[in-house]
Amino acid sequence: MRQRALAVLLGALLLLVAGCSQVPASTTPVVVGNAPDGPSGDQSNYYEIQPDGPVKGDSPDTIVRGYINALATSDPTYEVARQFMTTKASKEWQPGASTSLIDPAYSVQPSGKDGVVNFSASRSATVDSDGTYHAGAESMTDVYKLEKVAGQWRISNPPDGIVLTQSSFSNVFKVASLYFLDPSGTRVVPDLRYYPVNPKQRANTLIDGLLGGPSDSLAPGVRNEVSDPVKLRSGVLYNDSEIKVDLTGLSGKNGAQLKALSAQILWTLRDLNVKAVRITNDGQPIDVPGVAAVQSVSDWESYDPDAVPVDLSVFYVADGRVLNGQGAAVAGNAGTGALGVTSASLSVDGTEMAAVGTATGVPTLYVGPAGSDLVPVALPDTVSLTQPTWGAANDEVWMVRNGNTIVRVPTKGQPAIVTPGSLGDISSISSLRLSRDGTRVAMVATVPSGSRLFLATVVRSPDGVTITEPMMLSPTVEVTETAWSTARTLVVFGRGPVGTRDVPYSILIDDSSRTQLPAPVFTARPTAIVAAPNRSLVCAGDGIILKLTESTWVSLISGKVVSGKSPFYPG
After folding, report:
1. Distance CA 200, CA 30 (A)
2. Euclidean distance between CA atoms 353 and 335, whole angstroms
3. What is the dihedral sign for C-alpha 501, 506, 507, 509?
4. Which of 291, 373, 420, 530 is deepest in the core (most CB within 10 A)?
C-alpha cells in the first residue's frame, strides 16, 4: 500500500442531492487524517490511501489478498478494490452494507479447487451501514470464487461489506456524535457513529445520519426533531464562514420544535469545528424564537448533556458524615453523623441530596434539599441499598435495593420499581449510575463469568419508567466500580483476564475504545471511582481518598491524608 501526501484546499462545496438525503456515491478524492480546525484548516496532515491494483498473472489467493488490502482505502468508490472483481460482481457489490474489524493474522488459502479460495479471520466488531459499532468476538469465514477475465483471475462473488484490520479501520474511519433529544427536549444526547474520514462529505454524512434516526439501542429513550417528513433539500454547503443546511418538511413545526431541531444540528456539526450554521426550510431561513438566522454553537449551550455547576466539587463520606472536597461537613443532618451515612449523592444541579444511612440499624434512604435536614423514605424490608444516583431530572433519585430491584424515588411522591425488559444472566447489581443527561444507566452486575459492566437505555412513557435489556461492555474486564466521565465516556476500575490488580479504564459507551489510565497503588481492591466533565478523577481505596493530578494520584487535600470512602460528584 502506498501513502502519499494529498494537499487539499476546502473551498465552498455544494453536493446537489435533489429530493434525497443520501450522500452521492461518487465524489472527488477523499482524504484521511485528523479533523482540521475548520473548513479551510491545514490539510498537510492528510493522506490519500491508494492501494495497489492486481498484477498480471496473479494467482487466485494473491488476488483475494490484494482485494482485502485494497479495502483499506480512503476512496469511497473503492475503485481499486473493484479491479479485483469481474465486471458483473463490481456492479452488484455493496461495500457500504457493513464493516468487519478483523485480526491482522487472517488467512487466505487456496481450497484445492481451481479458482476457489478460503478466507478466515477473527472478527472483533462490526460497524453497520448506519455507522453503529457492535463489539463482539467471533470467527468469520468466506469462500471466494474466481473466474478468468481476459486470462486473469477475478473475484465473482465478493461478499457485501468490507473487512479491515483495527489499524486500517482507525485510519479510514472516524468516530462522530450524532445528537438526539432527551424526553424533555431540553438536553441533547450523543449517539456514537463511525463514518469514513472525508472532510468534503463530513457535513452531509452527519446530517444524513440525523435524518436516519437514533441507533436501535438508544431509540426508545430519545426524541428526534430531524425526522420524517424532514429531509435535505440539497447538499450541505460548507465553506470558510458558515455551514448552510437546506431542509424541507419543517413547515409544521412550532418554535419549541425548531429550537430542539436547531440544537440537534448545531451540536452534531460541532464535529467540524464550525461555529456558524444557517438552517433553511425550502430555501428560506427558519424562524427560531430568540435566535438569529445564522446560529452559533453558543446559542445552544443550555442543551449540553455534560452540563454541571460551575463550582462543581467532589464530596465523600467519613465517620458517617458527608464532607466536601475541603474536608468540611455539609450543612444539615447528613453532615452531623446522626444518620450514620455510608454513601450519598447530589443532584446534577447540586440542589438535592440523597444519602444511605444505617443509624437505625438497617440501610435507610434519606432525601431532601442539600444543606437541610434529609428525611427518611419508606422502603420496607430493605437489606441493602447501593449508592444513590441522579440523572438530568433533579426530582428523582435511583438506587438498587436488595441487590436486584432498581428503585426510582421521586423527591415528591412514592417510590416506584423500574422494571427492566430483561436482566438476562444478571443475578445481582452492585452499582448503578445514571448518565447526567438521564437517558442511560450504567451498572456493575454479576453474571456467571464474574462482575461486569453493563449499559442500558432509560425508557419513559405514560405507563412508567423501564430500562432496555442491559448490554455488556468490555466482557473480558472484571469490573469493581464505574462512573460517568462525560455523556460519551465511562470510567471503571477493572482487571483483565490476566490482570493481578484493578486499574482504571476509560471506555466509550459503544465499547469501541478502552484506554488504560494511570493506576493508584492500594493494598486491597479499590472501592470507588468517580468522574465529572473537566474534573479530576477521584477514587477510594484502603480507607483513603485520592485524586488524579496530571498522571499522578495524590491526596484529595494537599498536605494531608484524607480518610474516607464513597466519593461523589453531583449526578
Report:
1. 8
2. 11
3. positive
4. 530
Residue type present at position 145: K
Q: In 79-120, which residue ranges form alpha helices assigned H by DSSP? A: 79-82, 87-92
pLDDT at 67 over 80: yes
- Is the CB of residue 177 less than 8 Å from the CB of residue 268? yes
User: In this structure, what are the phi and psi dihedrals at residue 512, rounded to the nearest 5 degrees?
Assistant: -85, -15
Is residue 228 packed enough to be buried (19+ CB in 10 Å), middle (13-18) or exposed (0-12)? exposed
| Rounded distance between C-alpha atoms, residue 131 and residue 418, angstroms | 31
Omega of the bond leading into 229 within 30 degrees of 0 (cis): yes
Looking only at the bridges linking them, the beta strands covering 98-102 and 116-128 are antiparallel
Can you tell me the distance from the alpha carbon of 149 to that of 155, in angstroms, rounded to the nearest whole number? 10
CA distance 366 to 354: 6
Pairing of strands 243-248, 276-281: parallel
**Cell 447489581, located at residue:** 429
Whole-number pLDDT of residue 177: 97
Contact yes or no for 76/201 (Cβ under 8 A): yes
Residues 6+ apart with CB under 8 A from 437: 182, 187, 188, 189, 305, 306, 391, 392, 487
Q: How confident is the model at residue 547 (pLDDT cuts 50, 70, 90)?
A: very high
- Convert the pLDDT of each residue in 350-389 to its tens digit: 999 999 999 999 999 999 999 999 999 999 999 999 999 9
Residue position matching grid coordinates 478483523: 102
Check residue 194 and report its DSSP letter: E
- The three cell numbers of residue 151 are 486470462
Beta bridge partners of 549: 552
CB 451 within 8 A of CB 479: yes
Residue 225 DSSP code: S
**Which amino acid, 104?**
P
CA–CA dist 311, 107 (Å, integer): 56
Sign of CA dihedral 233, 217, 159, 162: positive
Give how far Cα 376 sits from Cα of 75, 274, 324, Å: 62, 50, 22
Do the Cβ atoms of 144 and 157 come closer than 8 Å? yes
Residues 6+ apart with CB under 8 A from 455: 440, 441, 442, 443, 470, 471, 473, 490, 509
Give the torsion through C-alpha atoms of 555, 557, 560, 562, to 10 deg: -70
Give Cβ neighbours of residue 531 (< 8 Å, ≥ 6 apart): 483, 484, 485, 491, 537, 538, 569
Residue with cell 438530568: 392
Contact of 351 with 397, CB cutoff 8 Å: no
Distance between terminal CA atoms of the chain?
49
